[in-house]
Write a structure and sequence with these properties.
This protein is mostly helical. It has 6 helices and 2 strands. Helix 3 runs parallel beside helix 5 and helix 3 packs antiparallel against helix 6. The mean pLDDT is about 95.
Length: about 180
């Protein structure tokens, strides 16, 4: 201890927050997986209790972001990184085409419950792929360059992706119904 007192005030937690804290001490693989799962749970918590209309609301103009759009985007990102690039699975892209690259954010006509089911299934498959890998040094292939990319780098990039979108979710949720918290 340095003798510096701990701050007395911290960001409030959500009332129904059941997220397990990532380990403060642990191995790299355990820590990266737990932090990514914490971010996944954080995004789901930011969406909890809202109606489909609220989830699809573009609440922070001029941005076109909505929680529903971010949800669709994150499902596609999970599939892209873990299934397509790392595991080499031959599955179609979600909510993307070269003609409509932003359909994940723009096309919100779909059922929100179905979008959550797809996202949860993609997260579950990502966890399976990660668990089956012999090490964090295992590589997949970046589709746009043909270069290898390690599972470690994918996990770090996914944590950054979720952290960025959880920041967006914070702003959207606060604007939709005033809810705020860690």
């Amino acid at each position: 201890m340095t003798g510096t007192p701990a701050p007395q005030h911290r960001s409030p937690r959500w009332d129904d927050d059941t997220r397990p804290d990532p380990p403060a001490v642990g191995g790299e693989r355990e820590t990266l997986g737990a932090v990514l799962d914490w971010h996944r749970a954080t995004f789901e918590l930011k969406c909890a209790g809202l109606t489909p209309r609220q989830l699809s609301e573009r609440a922070v103009p001029p941005s076109g972001l909505s929680l529903h759009g971010i949800l669709r985007h994150l499902a596609g990102v999970e599939r892209w990184w873990f299934r397509i690039q790392f595991a080499g699975e031959d599955v179609p892209l979600l909510h993307y085409s070269d003609a409509e690259p932003d359909q994940d954010f723009d096309d919100l006509d779909g059922d929100v419950d179905e979008a959550f089911a797809v996202w949860r299934a993609e997260c579950a498959r990502s966890r399976q792929i990660t668990a089956a890998a012999a090490s964090l040094e295992e590589t997949g292939i970046r589709k746009w360059t043909g270069d290898p990319i390690s599972l470690r780098r994918i996990l770090v990039d996914m944590i950054a992706e979720y952290a960025r979108h959880n920041g967006h979710a914070d702003l959207l949720r606060e604007r939709i119904d005033g809810s705020a918290g860690m």
